[in-house]
Amino acid sequence: MSNSYYWSSDWSEEFYIRLAKAGFISTTYDTKDALILLPELQTDYAILDFENLHISKNVKKLIDKNNYTFSINTQFTEVLEQLSTSHKYNWLKQEYATLLKDLYRNNGEHNDFEIISIELTCKESAKLLAGEVGYIIGKTYTSLSGFSSRDKKYSNYGTLQLVLLSKYLEKNHFHFWNLGHSHMEYKKRLGCQTYTRTDFLKRWDKAVKH
């Protein structure tokens, strides 16, 4: 409990799932010799309880415009590609992307674990405006990484995707949404609360074993 980061050269689906179920969120690190898996047992976690969701005036206007389509698992590969090109520092490198594709292809074969993609597309152009990948364990959802269009005319569509995802999770009776690191301002604006590692693990263990 005194450490946060660990590393492994084990890229198996089974090991990744065991890490996730224990509360680790895994990224990657590029060493001189190879890319390694970097599981992190974070010191704190951002948790969204759906009754705390905050919807800004700008997002409410976008909801009313209804010029978008919200979907789950319709463009998994496209979302991964966008994630790999949208971030200056990209940890979603080849071995990790391959692992996620394998996990996605084998959804249904793993006990209580499912990789999913979230997509927000423009109704008129079918352009992918925002999205993310994450995983479901029991009635919890954990975000891994997301992106949104940098085009000014699509400002706030990234937040819209988050709000619509929250509504989806609430409608489907999820216990809570785990957004990982708590220091990012957009998570606070969304309504997340910060849990220490100890408090998170107590709640997490209860939820994933439910």
Notes on the protein architecture:
The chain is an alpha+beta fold. It has one domain (44-194): Leucyl/phenylalanyl-tRNA-protein transferase, C-terminal domain (Aminopeptidase). It is built from seven helices and nine strands. It has helices at 13-21, 57-65, 76-86, 94-105, 157-171, 185-190, 197-208, and strands at 25-30, 35-40, 44-48, 68-72, 113-122, 128-137, 140-148, 176-178, 193-196. The protein has a seven-stranded mixed beta sheet with strand order 4-5-6-7-8-3-9, with helices on both faces. A two-stranded antiparallel ribbon has the order 1-2. α2 crosses α5. The longest helix is centred in the last third of the chain and has 15 residues, at 157-171.
Short key terms for the protein model shown above:
two-stranded antiparallel sheet; 28% strand; 9 strands; alpha+beta; globular
Strand order of the largest sheet: 4-5-6-7-8-3-9
Q: Distance between the terminal alpha carbons, to the nearest Å? A: 24 Å
Shape: globular
Mean pLDDT: 94
CATH homology superfamily name: Leucyl/phenylalanyl-tRNA-protein transferase, C-terminal domain
Low-confidence stretches: none
Oligomer classification: single chain
How large a portion of the residues is in β-strands, by DSSP E? 25-35%
Number of helices: 7
Q: What's the gist of this structure?
A:
With 210 residues, this protein is α+β, with helices and mostly antiparallel strands.
Q: What topology emerges from the helices and strands here?
A:
Blueprint: H1 13-21, E1 25-30, E2 35-40, E3 44-48, H2 57-65, E4 68-72, H3 76-86, H4 94-105, E5 113-122, E6 128-137, E7 140-148, H5 157-171, E8 176-178, H6 185-190, E9 193-196, H7 197-208
Parallel strand pairs: 7-8
Antiparallel strand pairs: 1-2, 3-8, 3-9, 4-5, 5-6, 6-7
